[in-house]
Amino acid sequence: MQPLIDIKNVHLSYDTASGKLPVLDGFDMSVPEGGFVAVVGPSGCGKSTLTRLIAGLMKPDSGEVWLDGQQVTSPRATVGMAFQNPVLLEWRSILKNITLPLEIVPTKLNKAQQEERARYLLSLVGLEGFEQKRPSELSGGMRQRASLCRALIHQPDVLILDEPFGALDAFTREDLWQIMHDVKAREPFTGVMITHDLRESIYLADQVVVMSGRPATTQFVMDMPVTGARSIETLYTPEAADMLKVLRHQIEVAQGRAPSAASNTTGGH
Fold first, then answer.
1. Rg of the chain on CA atoms, in Å
2. Closest CA relative to residue 204, chosen from 193, 189, 219, 218
3. Where do the DSSP E strands lie in 17-157?
4. CA-to-CA distance for 121 and 152, rounded, in angstroms?
5. Rounded Cα gap, residues 6 and 81, in angstroms
6. Pairing of strands 70-71, 62-67
7. Which regions of the chain carry the CATH code 3.40.50.300?
8. Which terminal residue of the chain has fewer beta carbons within 10 Å of its beta carbon, N or C?
9. pLDDT at 107
10. Are 65 and 7 in contact (CB under 8 A)?
């Protein structure tokens, strides 16, 4: 079966004042339709670069990025993105912030239908009644929920999350993790999440991909024994502890702080 996202042997370098800076070196990753993959790795290894390649905001030097059977060569309207900084416009209400992409991306929805969908998404993430508030009137967690709604408003096939919960406190973050499971059950999408939080990766994802140090390759792949919605209590099981131990070791390998066993180049759990 053809994966919805297929990244094949991608190489990419940035031009700097001192010459070429290799970032990706033969990187491979695939995500099936409806799958959710978390990507982890050392700081600066190219995780955010990967999201821009999937969205068509960048092109690789060599290799291929495929999305739903088509090679990605330009920005794709079928991709939604949410970032660590929600970047909501203060002069627009929360409702108008959420419908903003529909002013850019072609849609068959009329104005009433657009507002109806925005209100539905807000209710889905627990923000019903906050439609006319301004971003400054919302907490950080609430703004991030609104950002998630904005990323989903045009019903994208692919949702890219670039450390969306990284700036939040632990309790708010765990609350949003559960909301993510609820949203995915109601708003099916294929997801790629960049995160530095290993607990977040095993709680939300179906599969965790570990990127090596720069220039990055696919160092390690771990399949989750349970996919889809799950309880926060699953993070406190012996199985979760074992998975976190393996992933921590892989991060240390990627950082050059631990030796790498040949069998760990690719693997699963």
1. 19
2. 193
3. 19-31, 36-40, 62-67, 70-71, 79-83
4. 8
5. 18
6. antiparallel
7. 1-78+158-269
8. N
9. 81
10. yes
Given a contact cutoff of 8 angstroms between Cβ atoms, the answer to whether 63 and 10 are in contact is: yes
Peptide bond into 106 cis (omega under 30): no
Q: What is the pLDDT of residues 9-46, one digit of tens each?
A: 999 999 888 888 899 999 999 999 999 999 999 888 88
- Spell out the alpha helix ranges (H) of the chain: 47-55, 94-99, 111-124, 140-152, 170-186, 198-204, 238-254
Question: Cα–Cα distance between 263 and 215 in angstroms, integer?
Answer: 21
Please state, in angstroms and rounded to a whole number, the distance separating the CA atoms of residues 133 and 236: 37
Position 261 scores a pLDDT of 56
The pLDDT tens digits of the residues spanning 218-243 come to: 999 999 988 877 888 989 999 999 99
Please give the CATH number for the structural domain made up of 1-78+158-269: 3.40.50.300
